[in-house]
Structure to design on (138 residues):
């Protein structure tokens, strides 16, 4: 399960609105060894299907509910230790992809996640445009 502001976050699919929040930045903690992972995840992905011979894009809910990061080491630990030994916490709700990218990188740099051996993070990449961060305030 995911936590946001110390409460269980489990909205019904119809309660998720891509016009309000497109995704989130998260922290996953291994409760056995204390190792952490910072990442981002989108609530929706685009899916194409053919309608009357034309491609039509639709938004579908992503696999965020059962997601445990893209890092191979944390995925292996989840497989070996079980999901009950991990805490998944949403740090920020994001209104755009750029906001997700920026806040993920901000947390990784602030926490020195790729330098600190207590984090699973071993690389980072970021692409952010200033015009998409207009709503972000610090």
């Amino acid at each position: 399960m995911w936590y946001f502001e110390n409460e269980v976050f489990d909205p019904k699919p119809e309660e998720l609105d891509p016009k309000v929040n497109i995704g989130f930045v998260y922290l996953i903690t291994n409760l056995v060894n204390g190792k952490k992972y910072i990442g981002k995840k989108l609530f929706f992905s685009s899916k194409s299907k053919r309608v009357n011979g034309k491609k039509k894009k639709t938004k579908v809910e992503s696999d965020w509910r059962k997601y445990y990061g893209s890092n191979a080491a944390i995925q292996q630990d989840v497989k070996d230790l079980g999901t009950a030994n991990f805490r998944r916490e949403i740090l920020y709700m994001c209104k755009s992809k750029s906001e997700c990218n920026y806040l993920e990188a901000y947390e990784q740099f602030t926490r020195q996640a790729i330098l600190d051996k207590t984090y699973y993070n071993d690389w980072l990449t970021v692409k952010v445009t200033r015009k998409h961060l207009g709503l972000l305030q610090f």
In short: The longest helix spans residues 97-110.
